[in-house]
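Sample entry copied in:
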Amino acid sequence: MADILKQVVVPDLANPISSSQRTDSTRTKCMLFGGNFWTGSTDQGLRDGFRETGWLVQDVDYGYIVGGPVQSRLSKVVSRVSFRARIRDYHRRLIEDCESLKPDVLFTVKGWSLTPELLARFKGMGTKIICFYPDFHFNHQGIDVQSLKQFDMFVSSKSFHMAYLTELGMGDRAHFVPHGYCSAAHLPLSREIREQDYDADIGYIGNHSPAKQRWLVGLKHAAPELDIKIMGHRWESELSGADRDLVKAGIPMSLRYSDAIQKARINVAVHLGRTAGSGEWEDLVSTRSFEIPACGGFMLHVDNPEIREYFTPGREIDVFSTVEELADKCRFYLHRPELRREMIGRAYQRCVPAYSYARRAAEISDLIEHAFPLGPKASTETDQRGIAIREF
């Protein structure tokens, strides 16, 4: 797919509008947001948060326009041509909306498929281009480090990126804003969970990686009496023998994801681990670090200094550093359902709404308005039904 992206040519539309043509001191701040807005995504959470903060947001959903690359070998040539055409459609839509709306900001998560030439075109229209990067490395298809250097502001969810971004010459426009949870999807479905409502002792939802396998298969071997339930991509193909019994069919999304978290007595939070393209980097926290408490789940999280900044071990969540410690704490908390309920409540209160993507969007909005002069804010008072009333 990387070769395909390099071949995509920016659509030859009308000449860009200069920044001098878009000044309007009476207009509400406006954002064009290119992203993938499936329910529960970072993109959706931030988009909705920007709207709550007073932005007018026009979204362009590349997940809908582009979709995923077709994997069938039989139609390989056709699918490559079609995929290039869909990427051009996504770029064309961004350009047309930018020329029509003259937004203050073009915002994107990761900057997928956006070339330096395309970003330069947006900047030529007088629009500030801003990227939120929620991944721990940059070795992804469709991600061009040279493109990242073009952004007027680059916001990463990884604190350890800051030194690297400074080395790239981006230190004066790089900012750290943590992950969060999406309020539209990550919430408790049940006000109260009884012991008979649980369908697993230990739950994990997420894609397979060797690091995750070491933790979760290691837990099974260290505590074979536990009922462990794993859901996600690639687990069944990567595990063998009796270890496959850990894998449950289906990959829950949106509210089903929240329901699965709440119905596991203990949710284990481990991350991808180091990869060939990540060097010494690896996740300290991820979206699940905030999604599990927001969904009303009990969380055992791999220990590190950063997770301790957000939650207090032993009071709201607990942590582990070895497979043996993980097994011991699983046994300890499984026999103390009342303690788990108390810690779930405290973790929820700590997390909601403070760690929501709505709050993260407000943080980013403050950074934007501090760095760039924008139009006036709109009032977001609500009526009796809680629906926003816009005043000018």
Q: What stands out?
A: The chain is about 40% helix and 15% strand. The CA atoms of residues 95 and 122 lie 8 Å apart. The domain at 195-351 is CATH 3.40.50.2000 (Rossmann fold).
